[in-house]
Specification:
This protein is mainly β. It is 6% helix and 30% strand. The chain contains 1 helix and 10 strands, in the order E-E-E-E-E-E-E-E-E-H-E. Strands 1, 4, 5, 6, 9 and 10 form a 6-stranded mixed beta sheet that branches. A two-stranded antiparallel sheet has the order 2-8. The longest helix is centred in the last third of the chain and has 7 residues.
Length: 122
């Protein structure tokens, strides 16, 4: 059976501990319908893409790009790549607690998101 990360099924890759760290102080807007990312040489099955990763998408149904210089928004939660890909929920407006995230953002990415994402440093 094929597995997809996040919303289309489940497959355990390693033992998972329960941990709750709130990365978003508030979410005001998400990209309509999210996005689908296929398995690739960069994003192999089992790869974890951390919440807060910059995502660029040009239209609904288009293939998203991770860590581009001019992102559409940030990944809402950690995503585990399944054998057939994964779905991404993209936050386009909100307050993000960046010091809690494992994602790395550049100054250019933050500037591109200015006015839409407020980066809260703790």
């Amino acid at each position: 059976m094929a597995t997809y990360g996040n919303s289309f099924g489940e497959k355990r890759y390693d033992p998972v501990g329960a941990e709750r760290i709130n990365l978003w102080d508030s979410i005001e807007e998400r990209y309509p319908s999210g996005a689908y990312l296929a398995v690739s040489s960069t994003n192999k099955e089992g790869t974890v893409i951390p919440a807060g990763t910059p995502v660029t998408i040009t239209s609904v149904g288009a293939t998203p790009t991770l860590n581009g210089s001019s992102p559409t928004g940030l990944l809402e939660e950690d995503v585990v790549m399944g054998s057939k890909g994964c779905t991404l929920t993209i936050v386009t407006r909100g307050r993000f607690c960046e010091s809690r995230s494992k994602a790395t953002l550049t100054a250019a990415q933050k500037t591109a998101l200015a006015g839409r994402i407020l980066f809260v440093a703790e």
